[in-house]
Amino acid sequence: MRIESINVGRVETVRRGDKAMQTGICKQPVTGSVQIGVEGIPGDAIVSTEHHGGPDQAIYAYSSDDYDWWAKSMGIDVFPGLFGENLTIRDMPSDMTIGDRLLIGEVVLEATAPRIPCDTFAARMGDAGFGLLFRRAERPGVYFRVLHAGEVCAGDTAMLVQCDEHDVTILDLFRYKYRVQHNADDLNRLLEVPIAERFRVAIESTLDALS
User: pLDDT of 36-46, one tens digit each?
Assistant: First the structure.
């Protein structure tokens, strides 16, 4: 795997109909070395802190190969940072196991959650129906926590260290968000792995509702 682009956003306004939203989703590639810390990239704007950012979702990465799919299958003009990712990575798997790690020099990232589309994302794409397209595509990208901080640069090699302690994947979590009916065994399986805290709280709430 190779880092094709490192992307950082500032606070901007996007519109959906008459609704204006401030967001940090409009990320642009940067040059040179960039520091990655436990809270992400310093200076990268995170506006909706209820849903984004924090130690368990410090870095969002998207696969260049999945961008190629969007361009070919959906006719979308793609470019690094379009989906709001911090790292655009060539050859990154679409469906990683929770707990898989990426080693980029001294930086160690651990997969924790998928991206879930929202109204701001749809506004960014200029398409009110894009959330449904994103859901059906099942190419959500990956959120990571930072286990070891350090500097990265476009062109750096990333090595995947697979987690062999369980088989809960990014797509398992992604599909959970859209499932209408749940059972306790499936939910407990998701809770046994190092998922992002926001997902843990949501799953625990779903589990409690079954009681």
Answer: 999 999 999 99
Q: Is the pTM of this model over 0.90?
A: yes
pLDDT digits (tens, 9 = 90+) for 22-62: 999 999 999 999 999 999 999 999 988 888 889 999 999 99
H-assigned helices in 47-140: 64-74, 119-125, 130-137
Q: In what helix (H) or strand (E) does residue 174 lie, and over which residues does it extend?
A: helix 170-176
Q: How many other β-carbons are positioned within 10 Å of the β-carbon of residue 23?
A: 23
Residue 40 gets the label, from left (phi > 0), alpha (psi -120 to 50) or beta, of: left
| Ramachandran quadrant class, 162 (left: phi over 0; alpha: psi -120 to 50; beta: rest) | beta
Q: Domain 2-180 falls in which CATH fold?
A: M1 Pyruvate Kinase; Domain 3 (2.40.33)
Distance CA(29)–CA(19), nearest Å, equals: 27
Ramachandran angles phi, psi of 26, nearest 5°: -80, 75
Strands (E), 74-197: 87-90, 101-104, 107-114, 142-148, 150-152, 159-161
Q: Are 139 and 66 in contact (CB under 8 A)?
A: yes
Query: Residue 123, exposed/middle/buried by CB under 10 A (0-12, 13-18, 19+)?
Result: buried
Handedness of CA 103, 38, 83, 204 (dihedral sign): positive
